[in-house]
Specification:
6-stranded antiparallel β-barrel; 24 helices; about 45% helix
Length: about 675
């Protein structure tokens, strides 16, 4: 009888019947003793007794009760319930131990392992499984619950490689042979406790793991097949991990081990001139990159006390921007517009203009075609800009986790240079695709979707990225990161979710308008919607004086042009204003890959705002501008150099510029006659 009670209790436990259902069934028998009598009465037809069980008892226990009823054992239910509780308690405290080995251990060795487990976990209630695993090479691995102790040859080899890698990333000046020699001399195998978890599901670059109770957000975990992932979601009983590699080889039941290291990227001066992926691995076929340090991809932004005012100009070389929407070192200026309106072109010209200006550049490609990135790199090489630039690419073919971490990894590299006291320009192209990658990850991780299916923390996604761009105080070296994030709009809708988020985070935006672009106004900067919240603080005095009323003149021209397009009878002042506005719009047109120096911009603006081009046909303005600037470069280089060095524009210099222009026009007229 006792054996039968134990068997039924074990069966209930294997069926995963909740303890609450067992308690409810026992309570029914206690409150309604006549029910137990009726169910045990052989004179009552069996069909009637089974119908009573179906009508008043919980669903999970009905099958067991029917079997007890048929076998006349219903009176032993209370004993079965007590045994069930005992089994449940015993199983919940039982320690699962797994021993993987190459050579099966002898009984004496197993005894010592059990003693080790008892001393560590203070229980003899263990369930030990022995498994042969030839991949270990030698020794064995002991897994106790979610903890792992590695005494294997494979583990020793991995520890040695990790020690060598840490010395290389630590900026050791030794060559590789010396590092290997010192690592061999200093190596000491440590069977430290590692926390492990087990995969419950995998798919679409997302792995859900049971265990790893102490894993931290952003921590790297390593799977059996060597692929690494980053903890992205932490729930009560499980964690969600995004993969940095292929999910092939990771199946339900696979092990994952904590590394106690935050996800990061190697950094160093050798990254300049290279094309790398989001993990810092070279993808340009030019060999290994010798790194100096390792920085986590997620870093807190510098505090207010650690920053200083943004007041040093970062020249883009684009007249329309430097004159009206100046960008300072440490600023975050958004480039926003529909696709194919020249957003990347503005960023590329800005990078080209940093040549010789003591500013390093990082271009982050997110979700772009490999052919597009290759053409961009080729363009940088053609203009000799790769020497001070690093391209970090997460292509459209890369999984969403790689696209998600790319801008953070690039910012960590930029921070390395910033804390070395250098100025850095970083371009995020583009954050719209970054937000889409994050949305995909969040939905796969089971996070609740909100507006436009984005999770509620999508604002924090970009704010914690862009807040890392700043200008450091002199005590921290005075370096800076200037950010040019790019956002793609749909049909000019700047009020959509992601555009409004990034607009509120940044220090201004350059809005590129499709209509202007198709009219041939390139760069297609909309003067009305574009703004720099740093403004004149990041503008040289020469540019500020030369630009003068440019923005007001353009705004008045566009308004006047709308009102007078159907009118033929205009007074002279209106005609002059329209002609001047049209000439200014022509001067703001700029070909790709031809950024203007500060001196060239100032000369152009001085002549334009003094209405020296009024007598020139609109179609000839650009040609005249190029000829004038070439004349200044050849005949009066001191004027351009003086503006470039001093950043000042005195009244006598203005008169000198106009005088030189008049001489040029006179010589040109004489040559033509």
């Amino acid at each position: 009888m006792l054996q039968k009670v134990s068997d039924y209790a074990q069966q209930l436990y294997k069926m995963h019947v909740p303890n609450s259902e067992i308690e409810e069934t026992s309570r029914i028998f206690e409150v309604l003793p006549e029910t137990a009598s009726q169910l045990s009465d052989p004179t009552v037809p069996l069909e009637n007794r089974l119908a009573i069980i179906d009508s008043i008892f919980p669903t999970e226990v009905r099958d067991i009760l029917k079997v007890l009823c048929q076998n006349g054992l219903l009176s032993s239910w209370m004993d079965i319930a007590d045994e069930y509780r005992r089994v449940s308690e015993e199983e919940s405290t039982k320690l699962s131990v797994r021993l993987r080995y190459v050579t099966k251990p002898e009984e004496e060795q197993l005894k010592r392992i059990r003693t080790f487990v008892y001393n560590k976990y203070h229980t003899r209630n263990i369930e030990m499984r022995l498994e042969e695993d030839a991949s270990l090479g030698g020794g064995f691995i002991l897994e106790v619950g979610n903890d792992q102790y590695d005494w294997s040859t494979k583990g020793r080899r991995q520890q040695f490689l990790d020690e060598v890698m840490s010395k290389r990333l630590g900026g050791s000046s030794q060559d590789i042979v010396s590092i290997l020699q010192s690592s061999v001399d200093d190596f000491d195998l440590k069977a430290e406790k590692k926390e492990i978890g087990f995969v419950s599901s995998v798919g679409d670059g997302i792995v859900v793991i049971n265990g790893l109770d102490h894993a931290m957000y952003g921590e790297v975990v390593v799977f059996d097949n060597g692929v690494r992932g980053m903890v992205q979601n932490i729930e009560r009983n499980r964690i969600g991990v995004i993969l940095f590699g292929e999910e092939e080889g990771i199946v339900e039941g696979s092990r994952a081990v904590r590394t106690n290291k935050m996800a990061g990227i190697p950094v160093g001066d050798a990254f300049l001139g290279r094309v790398v992926d989001a993990l810092g691995n070279p993808i340009d076929g030019e060999g290994e990159i010798v790194t100096r340090d390792y920085r986590p991809i997620e870093q807190p932004a510098p505090g207010i006390i650690d920053r200083k005012t943004v007041n040093v100009p970062l020249q883009t070389g684009i007249l329309a921007i430097d004159s009206m929407f100046p960008i300072g070192r440490g600023q975050r200026e958004l480039i926003i517009g529909d696709r194919q309106t020249g957003k990347t072109s503005i960023a590329m010209d800005t990078i080209l203009n940093q040549k010789g200006k003591n500013c390093l550049c990082i271009y982050v490609a997110i979700g772009q075609k490999e052919s597009t990135i290759a053409a961009l790199v080729e363009n940088l090489k053609k203009h000799d800009a790769m020497s001070y630039t690093c391209v970090l690419a997460a292509t459209a073919a890369d999984p969403a986790p790689i696209q998600y971490i790319a801008p953070y990894a690039a910012t960590s590299l930029a921070e390395y240079f910033m804390y070395e006291g250098k100025d850095v320009l970083i371009v995020y192209d583009d954050l719209s695709k970054h937000a889409v990658a994050y949305r995909a990850l969040s939905l796969l991780l089971g996070r609740a979707p909100g507006r436009e299916a984005y999770p509620g923390d999508v604002f924090y996604l970009h704010s914690r990225l862009l807040e890392r761009s700043c200008r450091l105080s002199d005590e921290l070296g005075g370096g800076s990161i200037t950010a040019l994030p790019i956002i793609e709009t749909q049909d000019g809708d700047v009020s959509a979710y992601i555009p409004t988020n990034v607009i509120s985070i940044t220090d201004g935006q350059i809005f590129l308008e499709s209509n202007l672009f198709f009219e041939g106004q390139r760069p297609a900067v909309n003067v009305g919607l574009s703004v720099s919240r740093v403004g004149g603080a990041a503008q040289t005095k020469a540019m500020k004086k030369a630009a003068g009323s440019l923005r007001i003149d353009l705004a008045q021209y566009r308004e006047m042009a709308v009102f007078t397009q159907f009118s033929s009878d205009l007074d002279e002042s209106t005609k002059t204003q329209l002609t001047q506005g049209a000439i200014l719009m022509e001067l703001l047109k700029q070909p790709l890959g031809r950024p203007l120096s500060l001196g060239e911009q100032v000369v152009t603006l001085v002549l334009a705002l003094h209405k020296e081009f009024l007598d020139v046909d609109k179609k000839e303005v650009k040609s005249l501008q190029n000829r004038v600037l070439q004349y200044f470069e050849e005949k009066e280089p001191d004027i351009l150099r003086n503006i470039e060095i001093s950043g000042m524009l005195a009244d006598d210099l203005v008169e000198q510029i106009i005088s030189v222009y008049h001489d040029f026009r006179k010589k040109e007229a004489e040559e033509q006659s």
